[in-house]
Amino acid sequence: MLDLILPLECGGCGAAGTRWCAACASALTVAADQPHLVTPRQDPGVPVFALGRYAGARRAAIVALKERRRTDLAPPLAAALGVGIHHLLGWGLVTLPLVLVPAPTRRSSARRRGGDPVLRLATAAVADHPRITVAPVLRMRATARDSVGLDSRGRERNVAGRVRLTRRAPRPAEVLVVDDIVTTGSTARESVRVLQTAGARVTGVLTLAHA
């Protein structure tokens, strides 16, 4: 009866009868050599890592979480993010104690989405790790517009000077900026710049996907 009222649909492929099918779960599996180093067009000055391409089940799940409020997709995405962080620690690319700083979003976008999805994912990814904390200290100013459809130069202009600190930057622990997608790298670069200007020791950026 519940399926008739609210039909279950896989958030990755749309298959009926399940919220997250085995095939899509496999597509989010983090391999031993992931995340990979990527090179966005706008260099943030620190290494940028991504867990996969912004395509297929990964893309569909991210879009559904952000735009359709499919909060049931947060656990598999957060689990992938958590494994990625674990690998970076294991490779010695980040060290403990570690602070995750979610990339900034506009207040209007967060309200429309029922909260900040990147903050939700970061918090769930490290919920059981005593030496990793999440600090949502960045916010996008209201004057920034939605970046969908903007080219590289447009994205750069859109975020330039529009990322602000909402409270003191985390110190002295290492900081890893986390986001769902990196496209041109404009948001990552501005986020890193603001944090470093405030004295934070930013060692990298980690995203679920790169476009």
From TrEMBL:
Stored InterPro entries: ComF/GntX_DNA_util-trans (IPR051910), PRTase-like (IPR029057), PRTase_dom (IPR000836)
Cited CDD domains: PRTases_typeI
Family: Belongs to the ComF/GntX family.
PANTHER family reported in the protein's UniProt record: DNA UTILIZATION PROTEIN YHGH
UniProt name for this protein: ComF family protein
